[in-house]
Design goal:
Helices cover about 5% and strands about 55% of the residues. The protein contains 3 helices and 43 strands. Mean pLDDT is about 90; it is low at about 1-30 and about 310-320. It is found in: Cell outer membrane.
Length: about 800
């Protein structure tokens, strides 16, 4: 009898051949083609990987309309998005594991990679997707195979590599319009060229340019409350001007050695973040804010008294929180925010905002990556990955997204990362193994704060205008040794054991206080203003840590047949502790220096699943169940106008199911669903609250998600016509850890459709598409500012979008 490993080797070339045949046949170009992944650091059929993995090829992502890195979340069960700055910076949430601290000093609990190079800054997870071969999304703790450990999971984008055999390339042009009062246009050009430079050298160049008009129409100075915050105020929002490029070189000096080098650069210019305002009101009991609700239409109070039921039956009263409304006796209009503003069309795309400027923000990133792969023998190989990245950004939002000149929030970063991974992999008849060393350095400086611009009601003369800023510097050095062994106990049963040992060193320096503000396009310049908020300011903090940490994995997977795999195991993940860099109000409100440091989080994951191939390979059915037991979960508690990360225990129960099938020739169907019930325990309403802590739901964690897709292709006009439709459903979810009623986005269903035609040679493809057909208002990000402005700021996914695309491949 052949061993399971030998059977896998038989199936793998067959799967690759099937994938190539599908990709080369225009009549059968399927969204459901087999995907070969490297989730376990070796090439495997997706169905042979005993891990919850969702993977898509570049062609599939293009057909799904993936433009930005986070777009793939809509088609991946259990994966959502979080972040800040109205979607200009977005990160992944996997199975409810996320951390939406808006300071770039942090690392996310879900790691993102490009060509095995770790993206160290959480908000740098937002990038344009172009010339990509595939994406792999792994769920659950990662630490025994990939360079950087992560508790929630990882997303790995793999770019297309240079071709040695022939010159190839493509040009892809898409143009379209958003269905908004602005009739905003978007034009995107993507192109790549690849080919040999000699017998042993090949190169590939790719670029992407995107020009998007603002889709959020600004009616400012309509209902302006104060003089404008500066020249150019009141711009339309939601634009994007991005250019990105990647150059890759591949060297094959011998049959056993390959060296891949790549350089990438991306630059984006954007307006102020496209938040909108909705009127909210705080519910007070005994001097404590216990809930926030949408403001009733006739309500004129700043805050309202509760009667012990959390605000469901609010009663008359005169309790209010100090500072709310900046001394106003009540709301200046019934049902509006403190200053009388109510969004003119609710969640549609018209608003009135003063602190809104064209080309105010930018993000810029660059990177170098080197990968050396050397086959030491027929069964052993060595891989070295060297990666360097630089991130710069400065982005702004208006805290009330309204015409009252109050405060703006800004987020800036200047960071570099360097990582070096050395990895050995090997196999024999009954085992496969990986062993490696990993070093990571992150040198991060962030500038965050609140800007009181010219003419601001919060300026605080004689210092106005000012930046109430925090400057934080964090250097991280992480050293790891890791390994994983798969051992065949029998021809059908395999045991897996993995271990990672690491030391995490952090050196932290923070200062916060008040700077003079010179304009609306720069922050934290000059020297602190002494005693601007009384004796003691500015405030300073320094600390350093050096912690030993470990992760581990034990698992069994059983192949009762060539078409069925069942697996179960336990996995320990860890994310190092770190330091907060809070805004001034959050610093003072959370106890000052005592709230700066927080501990590592530890996740014990228990998971079982199956992967089945049915109907002669035409159907794949995969499922998993899991239980997460968290110790010291790193949760972001946002109170007032700022927040800090705190440690709290948590637990999650969940299940996922994925079905892909081609029941008849030309028809592809996909369905996936994910459900989980997550609880974060003993969260206080605020630091020092006399009320007992509560169990809450994590942020940006919809309990139920589901996606369905259908694609039918047929011969027409000498080529292939294809009609495709997909819908994705998300349950409601909170965007504030306190789980107040108003701090929640409703459930939504997004629907997309497209019609494409491909020429007989597959050289030409034209596409007509409509994204968000029903013009659904799907929530992206939000902040609770009910006690500052009587409002929450919220952002939504882009409105209905019509486009036409033309692609030429050669």
């Amino acid at each position: 009898m052949k061993t399971k490993h030998q059977r896998r080797n038989i199936r793998r070339p067959l799967a690759i051949a099937i994938g190539i045949a599908i990709a080369q046949s225009a009549a059968a170009q399927s969204l459901l083609e087999e995907v070969i992944v490297t989730a376990q650091k070796r090439e495997q059929n997706l169905q042979d990987v005993p891990v919850a993995v969702t993977a898509f090829t570049g062609e599939q992502m293009s057909a799904l309309g993936v433009q930005e890195s986070f777009d793939i979340a809509a088609f991946s069960p259990g994966v959502h998005i979080s972040g800040n700055l109205a979607g200009q910076n977005t990160q992944f949430s996997i199975r409810g594991v996320t951390q939406n601290d808006f300071n770039d000093i942090i690392e996310a609990p879900n790691a993102v990679y490009l060509d095995e190079g770790y993206i160290a800054v959480a908000q740098a997870q937002t990038f344009a997707v172009y010339d990509i071969a595939r994406v792999e999304i792994l769920k659950g703790p990662q630490g025994t195979l990939f360079g950087r450990n992560a508790t929630g999971g990882l997303v790995h984008y793999v770019s297309n590599k240079p071709t040695f055999d022939e010159t190839t390339g493509y040009v892809d042009l898409t143009t379209g319009q958003f269905d908004t009062p602005n009739n905003a246009n978007r034009h995107t050009l993507e192109a790549a060229l690849s080919g040999p430079l000699g017998d042993k050298v090949a190169a590939r160049a790719a670029l992407r340019y995107n020009r998007q008009d603002p889709y959020l129409e600004n009616r400012y100075p309509e209902t302006a409350f104060l003089p404008a915050p500066g020249e150019g105020a009141g711009a339309d929002l939601g634009d994007d001007d991005t250019i990105a490029g990647r150059l890759s070189l591949a060297f094959q000096p011998t049959d056993t050695l390959q060296i891949d080098l790549s350089a990438n650069y991306a630059d984006s210019e954007v307006s102020t973040g496209p938040f909108q305002s909705k009127s909210t009101i705080g519910v007070i009991e005994g001097g404590e804010l216990v809930n926030v609700i949408d403001t009733p239409p006739g309500e004129t109070r700043l805050t309202i008294d509760g009667d012990g039921d959390g605000g469901a039956d609010a009663i008359d009263g005169d309790q209010f929180l100090p500072g709310g409304g900046i001394g106003l006796p009540g709301r200046l209009a019934p049902g509006a925010d403190f200053f009388g503003y109510l969004d003119p069309d609710g969640d549609d795309f018209t608003f009135s905002g003063d602190f809104a400027f064209k080309d105010q923000g930018y993000t810029e990133s660059s990177g170098l990556n080197a990968r050396v792969a050397w086959d030491l023998s027929a069964n052993t190989s060595f891989t070295a990955i060297t990666d360097w990245k630089r991130y710069e950004k400065l982005l702004f939002i208006d805290v009330d997204s309204a015409p009252a000149n109050q405060l703006a929030n800004y987020a800036g970063v200047d960071a570099t990362s360097f990582s070096q991974e050395l990895r050995l992999t090997g196999e024999s008849d009954n085992m496969r193994w990986v062993a490696g060393l990993y070093y990571l350095n992150i040198d991060n400086q962030s500038d965050n704060g609140l800007k009181a611009p010219a003419n601001s009601i919060a300026g605080g003369a004689p210092f106005a205008p000012v930046d109430i800023g925090v400057v934080a510097e964090l250097e991280t050095n992480s050293y790891s040794v890791f390994g994983q062994l798969d051992y065949d106990l029998t021809p059908t049963l395999t045991a897996t054991a993995g271990l990672r040992l690491m030391r995490e060193e952090k050196d932290y320096d923070m200062a916060l206080g008040v700077f003079p503000s010179f304009d609306n396009y720069s922050v934290n310049r000059g020297d602190f203003i002494p005693n601007a908020f009384g004796a003691g300011s500015p405030y300073f903090y320094e600390d350093e840590t050096s912690d030993p940490l470990w992760t581990g994995k034990l698992q069994l997977d059983w192949h009762p047949s060539d078409t069925l795999m069942i697996y179960a195991g336990v996995n320990r993940g860890v994310k190092a502790g770190s330091f907060n860099a809070p805004l001034l109000g959050a610093y003072l409100g959370s106890g000052g220096n005592s709230a700066i440091a927080y501990d590592e989080e530890v996740l014990i994951s228990y998971e079982g699943g199956f992967k089945a191939t049915l109907g002669d390979g035409l159907t794949r059915l995969n499922g998993s169940v899991f239980y997460y037991d968290y110790s010291d979960y790193q949760a972001f508690l946002f109170v007032g106008v700022g927040g800090v990360v705190i440690n709290a225990d948590a637990e999650t129960y969940g299940a996922e199911l994925e079905l892909t099938t081609s029941p008849i020739d030309g028809l592809d169907l996909m369905f996936n669903a994910a459900y989980f019930d997550a609880t974060v325990k003993d969260i206080p309403l605020r630091f020092g609250s006399p009320l007992p802590p509560r169990d809450v739901k994590p942020t940006y964690a919809p309990e139920l998600q589901a996606t369905a897709l259908a694609r039918y292709a047929w011969d027409m006009f000498g080529g292939t016509m294809a009609l495709q439709g997909d819908l994705s459903y998300s349950d409601e979810f909170y965007y504030n850890l306190r789980n107040f009623d108003a701090d929640k986005f409703d459930s939504y269903t997004m629907v997309n459709a497209q019609l494409s035609w491909q020429s007989p040679s597959a050289a030409w493809t034209t596409t007509l598409a409509v994204r968000n057909i029903t013009d659904e208002r799907a929530g992206v990000q939000g902040f609770d500012l009910a006690t500052l402005c009587g409002c929450n700021e919220v952002s939504y996914r882009a409105p209905r979008f019509y486009s036409v695309g033309l692609r030429y491949e050669f």
